[in-house]
UniProtKB/TrEMBL annotation:
PROSITE patterns: GGDEF, PROKAR_LIPOPROTEIN. InterPro entries: DGC-Regulatory_Protein, GGDEF_dom, Nucleotide_cyclase, Rev_trsase/Diguanyl_cyclase. SUPFAM superfamilies: Nucleotide cyclase (SSF55073). Keywords: Membrane, Nucleotidyltransferase, Transferase, Transmembrane, Transmembrane helix. This is GGDEF domain-containing protein. It holds the Pfam family GGDEF. It comes from Paraburkholderia sabiae. PANTHER family: DIGUANYLATE CYCLASE DGCT-RELATED, GGDEF DOMAIN-CONTAINING PROTEIN. CDD domains: GGDEF. GO terms for molecular function: diguanylate cyclase activity.
């Protein structure tokens, strides 16, 4: 019997990865991974900016709350022995004006938000009840706090995704990963620098470089919270005759005078004291750790001499200063009311001839310079 021999078929060659194929796959993974990382990093950059903005809005809400607390406190105080012509205590009226300013600033900040957000209901503090305004601020704070927390959650989620992709790509794209991290670090530093510049501009006067009212109020809040010296004094300085400088010599000379005066104020106070420009031709000095009223009188005299020396140096012969002094806790029970008390004492000086100083509560006769 004849055997049939079946010819063997050649075995199919086994597929082996080729360098080109590996390179193409690696390149494809690199491209996809980098695109994914780029999208996530860009979203993180945007989220970080939105998170910073939400924090700024919450800070503005806190400042409005502080102003509201001050107005509420003054509203509960007994009426003055001599009622004001319009029936409203001047300190309470000033507190309402300050509250209205804070609400306006908060609404402008919300209106400039890069995130679609509900606007703050416009509230005139002189008409709308303080309770309604407090509820509105609480609702605004809750919304932005929730928004900030949601952004934080999204940042953590995106960060986890980026970390997972980077773990996969580390073996083949170490160089590209380092480059991406460098780009992210540069953007982060740039954002941090811009944030610092914004915060500095928000807390300093653009012309003189002095701290502004916002920084002073923050320091007073810190004192009220027990985070600073227990004994503090505020000297409120208003320039007498400065309007005549602007009217007769021009605003350029007036600005030059303010800049030179600010420099003298800095040099006349101790490093730990704070001198601020409240606005216009008004300044304030927050002094801590002083010994007695005589020391405060010496400081007030020194500040007034700064005004006189600046006036003499520029050859004007027009500008002098009226200074109101309020101290905590002996004269003012709440450090957040120092500004109003010192401002009231300063106006007493103006009513009695200007160019002098006076203490607030209890009232003291102004002391004009000899």
């Amino acid at each position: 019997m004849k055997r049939t021999v079946t010819p063997l078929r050649p075995a199919s060659p086994r597929w082996r990865p080729q360098p080109i194929a590996v390179g193409v796959i690696a390149l494809a993974c690199l491209v996809v991974g980098l695109l994914y990382i780029a999208v996530q990093v860009r979203a993180l950059y945007s989220d970080h900016f939105q998170q910073q903005y939400a924090s700024l809005v919450l800070e503005a809400v806190a400042r409005a709350d502080n102003a509201l607390d001050t107005a509420s406190l003054l509203k509960r105080l007994p009426p003055p022995k001599r009622p004001a012509p319009n029936g409203i205590d001047s300190r309470y009226r000033q507190a309402l004006d300050e509250l209205d300013t804070r609400i306006t600033e908060l609404d402008a900040l919300i209106g400039s938000s890069p995130i679609p957000a509900p606007r703050l209901p416009q509230a005139d503090a002189t008409v709308k009840s303080l309770d309604d305004l407090q509820q509105s601020l609480a609702a605004t704070a809750d919304y932005w706090r929730t928004r900030r927390d949601a952004i934080s959650t999204d940042v953590r989620r995106r960060t986890l995704r980026v970390a997972s992709v980077l773990a996969v790509l580390t073996v083949v794209v170490t160089g590209a990963l380092l480059a991406a991290l460098v780009v992210f670090a540069r953007r982060h530093r740039r954002l941090a620098g811009l944030t610092h510049q914004f915060q500095h501009a928000a807390q300093h006067d653009a012309m003189t470089g002095l701290p502004n009212r916002q920084q002073l109020l923050a320091r007073l809040d810190s004192i009220a919270a027990g985070h600073a010296f227990d004994k503090s004094a505020l000297l409120y300085i208003d320039l007498d005759g400065f309007k005549q400088v602007n009217d007769t010599l021009g605003h350029g000379i007036g600005d030059e005078f303010l800049v030179a005066l600010a420099q003298r104020f800095r040099q006349s106070l101790r490093p730990g004291d704070l001198v601020v420009r409240m606005g216009g031709d008004e300044f304030a000095a927050l002094v801590t750790g002083f010994g007695s009223d005589d020391e405060l009188i010496s400081i007030a005299t020194r500040l007034m001499n700064c005004v006189g020396a600046t006036d003499a140096h520029m050859g004007l012969g027009l500008v002098r200063a009226s200074v109101g002094i309020a101290t905590y806790p002996d004269r003012v029970a709440d450090p957040r009311l120092l500004v109003a008390a010192a401002d009231g004492a300063m106006y007493e000086v103006k009513r009695h001839g200007k160019n002098g100083y006076a203490f607030a509560i209890p009232p003291a006769p102004p002391m004009p310079l000899a």
